[in-house]
Amino acid sequence: MENAQQHRPAEDGGEPAGEGPGGPGAALELLVHGVGGTTPEQMLDDPRTVRVTGDGIAAVFRRADDADAERDPGARRDGPVPEAYVWCNLTSGNGTRALWLLLLPFMVVNLAHWMRPSAHGRRRTVRLYGLLVRLTGLSLTVLLVAAACEVALDLTAWQCAGTPACADRHSWLGFLSPEGGWWGAPGRRLALAAVVPAALTGLLWFLSLRTWSAYESQQPPGGSEAEEDTGPTALSRPGFWYGRRLGARLRAAHTAAALLTVAAAVGSAAARYDREPGGPAVLAVLGVLLEAALAAGAGAVVWVVCRRGRSERRPDGDADRRLVRGLPLAALALLVLGALYSGWERPGWESAGRLPGNVTFGALTLAQGLLVTVLAGVAHALHRTDPDRRAALRGLAGPAVAMLACALGGVMSGGVSQRVSDWLDGTRASLPGPPVLLTWQASVIPPLLLLLLVMCCWLARRAWHLARAERAAVEEEYAGETGDPGRTRRIASVRAMAALTDRGPRILAATSAATLLLGAGALVGATATGETPGEAARGAHPVVHGAAQTAQALGSWLIGLGFVLLVTWGRRAYKDASARRTIGILWDVGTFWPRAAHPFAPPCYAERAVPDLTWRIATWTGATGGRLVLSGHSQGSVLAAAAAWQLPPSARRRVALLTYGSPLERLYGRWFPAHFGPDALDSLHRDVVCWRNLYRRTDPIGGPVRLPGDGGPDVDRPPLKDPLAYGRTAEHPLPAPILGHSDYRADPAFAEERRRLLARLRPEVPAPRRTGEPGPAA
């Protein structure tokens, strides 16, 4: 693979002698849009478009007049044929995307897997990092299902249905009350209520399997030119975008873990009752055997999750069919046995107090804290092996994000439990309510929000100082223009706000550290006192008691408000396409990566988009022998880079890369250093024939690529002027807008750079550069 500087340029970056703007043969510009989505009509600036290839989810479009442009390439003399790849329906298509909001913690912990620091020669440590993240993801699945069990089994079937006053207020629970007949036995109530978390588990399994078939089952291009490992990033490996084996194995393990959680919730109360003195000996033995079987099943699940992770050196198409089918079926059989055991007749058994949920949630909180702490130690060790000064949080971004995933899971679990408890009990306080740990966790939300408010104030102060510093730069850049203090302040303020993106790691670090410490305090308080914060502080100083009561009440209200907002937002997104596109922006960023840590996370659209782009580029260049500019904006530039890494050499040498508003280095390079770090981007520069990157100082997302050594200036064009004109001119009689992250193609520099890239390409293999010849801008 030739370096971009090894190809002979046209003189002064212009057109080769005797060639028009399109050069010899066919020329194509493949446009890839960014987050938020768009339409082919907007991308191609033409109301008449036709679909060239693809389906209703993702497709390639052209202008109607360009549908058969390859038949007469010489007839088009004004540039390459524009072609648009539209992938927005992968993340914001139909209304079911709104349900993905419930999977937010799973998506966040999956991101933590890919935030691993770069390291060379530390394969075992890298595997340990992936293992810890997968175990953290497994704990989130158990936490979600445990929350469903808390609502359905504990609050509804055990507490409310077992309390006559609560059952009378909710007539639909009448048949479950002790006076309601056969179903009134506590064990049978629990067995019937177990249908709810079991159905939730089945829904998650079905959605994971269905979305894998729709999104992630795309075979990557193969052939004789397929390479096993072509550089310092795993994105160049043939099997990176096709991990069927790991996905199926994790799906089976998480499904089994969820079913075992339900089985433990159903059978634990009955087993505890049977162990009391005077209980039936046979049932006591059956309870011990059931708990032993559940423990063995849990061990099998953990073993499956701990096995080797992704295999990326080749497409991993093996399915492990026995394990994938046998593990969930065995867990389902244990659930059925647990329901039968719990439903056995036990005269004199009455439901009182709470189910042992406080122990369950406490164990999960402790396990998650330990996993995140060990993960931080592993990440630090990896970062010290291969330090990267641009890596976010010095390599600790993954553990920090994993901590936020656990916090999101806890907030969602506690919010559901608190709201359902209030709805069932009203204000009569006749039920014990949810576990006290959930109340303690809700009570730490106000101080955490106070910390975030302080951080926002710090950001505002930082933006004010940056804006003052930028005013001089704006005046210097637009020297000779008639001064306008208001205009200068606006431009400087936009630049300052755009620069705040680089302060994001500090906000994440403070939030994650505070979350870990406050969560540990909540666990200690709930375990030591066994009471809610307000009750535990009853004998303390009035100020302490008042603060505890205020934090408890405010935290309960905030967690309930968050749950209501989540449901409302999801309901609106289900009906409103514009709201669904807004949520789709979140998925555009968060679901780029394969589901390597959690199989129930929203599906990875890149496992469909990257093979789409790779197939299109390889087939078009192979059929025409022409030149292609792969043009990506924002998140589209990340997809373009991923596709370029996957191309065979014969196609790659006919492709130029044009990125604009690109987060490749500014966001992906800092947050995902193992895959988009300096070495990876430098290898991409060597792999493609030529690459040019455009950015603005007013852009909060895009930025320079900052390649190390001599490659940096060759890729990055100096920052574009924004706005194009300071005041009113003959070319801009009306005030020019401040574009920020949008409308890069409207800048004259875009067409200029595209023309130069096409001039650099040749249908045939380019000749090497002469010794001593200065390198072109590429």
TrEMBL record:
The chain crosses the membrane at residues 128-148, 190-209, 252-271, 283-305, 326-344, 364-383, 395-417, 437-460, 507-530, 550-570. The keyword 4Fe-4S does not apply. Keywords: Membrane, Transmembrane, Transmembrane helix. InterPro entries: AB_hydrolase_fold (IPR029058). Residues 1-29 are annotated as: Disordered. Residues 15-25 have a biased composition (Gly residues). This is Lipase family protein. It comes from Streptomyces prasinosporus.
